[in-house]
Amino acid sequence: MSNNNETGGAAGQKPGNGYIRPGIDDRPDLDKALTPEQKSAVERLAVPLPEKPQGEDSAASVGVQETRMLAESGTPVTAMASSVDAAVLDPNSAFNDMRDPMVSADGHRPSKTEIVRLGVGFTLSAVACAIPWVALSAIILPQVLQNINPATKESMLGTINAVGSIVALLANVIFGTLSDMTRSRFGKRTPWIVIGGLVAGLSVGLIAIAQHSFPAILVLWCCAQLGYNIMLAPFVATMSDRVPDKVRGTISGFYGAGIAAGQTLGNVVGARLNDHGASGVTLGWLIGAAVFALIGIITVIIWPREESNKNEKREEITAKSVLMNFRPPRHAPDFYFALVGRTLMMGGYWMINSYLFYISQDYIYAGQPRAKDSANALIAVMGVITLVVSLIAALTAGPITDRIGRRKLPVALASCLFAVGILMPLLIPTRTGMLLFAAVAGLGYGVYNAIDQALNVSVLPNPEEAGKDLGILNLANTLSTVIGSVFTSSIISVSKSMHHVTATPPSAYRVVFIVAIAIVLIAAYLIMRIKKVK
């Protein structure tokens, strides 16, 4: 058979005998027919062969030797591979990445309206929960404990936070796992979100009645922690279930913005309520009760309705299968770097913010008349500053990281920025130092909150166990409270003992700042150890 040259024609030209061979002589010139965009798409589908260093004998390579040994031992592999270089798949090639980034883990492709509803639900819930939680835990509860016994207020606060955090820790893992196993016509997350909110609301409301008894407050605060984490574990797992990869950073950013805004507004609201004395404190508990009782219901109404999963397959429930569902992930170092990194970062955060009222009153305004009123006013101003910078950071950081495709480095840098913020009141122990803390640490915390949840989802080893694994990651929120409370209260107790005083010496808080900076920087280092995520 003659070739093209013999018949007198190249591709796209008639041969000398006038016969056009279909698919051969009528082929278009691809260099001219394809647009630059189409050529770029074709190049992405290419799987390049690895370059072999000059002078290297392929038969001597480790991979070829292993293949040859397998072939000689009778393993059913192609013996030809022992002497021929094989192409290696390029993980960056579009040909090899068959995932659709706009399809969520549950297999659904949400519409733009559904994505907006998910974003609004996450953001609203973050704001609504953070405001009363911070107002109560950082301002109202410390004031109540100061009214009970000023000499032991720090240790009582540390005890409540530590015991409550242990309850929250167990609830997070248990109910995150139970939500994975739940089958109902309302889905697996919705029932727990609603129930948890109602339990938290009832518990907080009862504290308004029993706020003069430390044992009663301890028990009811633990019940509130239980309800809050029954709601929180499946709530966070919903981001893994229903938010597509392509927009997860953006929605995580809005969620982080909601947390940052809610926490700073919580300080403002708590300070203003505290200005009104006993009536303001009682009103704070009642507002918290109403918000927690309603927010779970409101959130699931805003979100697109979770589909029934009654027919979803599930392993037979036995004692062994239940225990196996609580087993932490194995062979997942990135998961544990993220867990410990977040625990330490948030530990540093709570070392300062759980005691913000006491720091302002006993460190910044120590020995001054009307120190309590000055502390409330300072916290309110700090809240406004932190609100502005954290909102800017949170709303911009999420979309930017989606665009550049990086999570790890921004989270680590945000942790370092937060450490710089803590340094401000240590170097400048005045109102100015605290305002600089609000601005610098608020910026770092805003960026951190915007990206950290997306980073956590990215290191999950098994999407089918997202509720359980995110519940374990959310242990960072509870363990960090324990770290913050135990470290700060222990430092203060030791300082009081050394100085033989009942009032907190200002020097104790200098040590608190130094320890907080150290553990936040360790957190940044651990985040950079993650390898799976850029």
TrEMBL record:
Domain Major facilitator superfamily (MFS) profile as annotated: residue spans: 114-534
Transmembrane segments: 118-140, 160-178, 190-210, 216-237, 249-271, 283-304, 335-357, 377-397, 409-428, 434-451, 472-495, 507-528
Disordered: annotated span: 1-62
Keywords of this entry: Membrane, Transmembrane, Transmembrane helix
Localization of this protein: Cell membrane
PROSITE patterns, per database record: MFS
GO cellular component terms listed in the entry, alphabetical order: plasma membrane
GO MF term set: transmembrane transporter activity
InterPro entries attached to this UniProt entry: MFS, MFS_assoc_dom, MFS_dom, MFS_trans_sf
UniProt keyword Membrane present: yes
Membrane topology per record: Multi-pass membrane protein
Protein name, UniProt field: MFS transporter
Species lineage: Bacteria, Bacillati, Actinomycetota, Actinomycetes, Bifidobacteriales
